[in-house]
Amino acid sequence: MGAAHGLAPDWHPGTIPDNVVSDPYRVPFDVARRRRALERLTRESPRRPAADVPTRPIRIARNVWIGFEACVLPGVRIGEGAVVGARSVVTEDVPPGAVVAGNPARVVRYQPPA
Q1: Which of 96, 99, 102, 111 has its CA 20 to 30 A from that of 50?
Q2: Which fold has domain 21-27+57-110?
């Protein structure tokens, strides 16, 4: 796991690069874990429809900040130096240096390179 990560302990080693910051209270990025939770939910409450969530890796570059309760969907890439706003739903790739926010997340502005 990357240095200075500030992440909850359920992140898998080697998937988060250095200097990535995220609030520990967030929607899980682990697709398999999320799928198990959804399957368990449908067994416990049969009136809810089953979800067919594809399994694809989420790629996070260095120096990324992910806000409170942000949800990053499978297969998304977050570029180096990007910022994801609180409670954003990231459905598409985030370019390097972009600040994104909203549902679905859209580029609000670009940060100057450090």
Answers
A1: 102
A2: UDP N-Acetylglucosamine Acyltransferase; domain 1 (2.160.10)
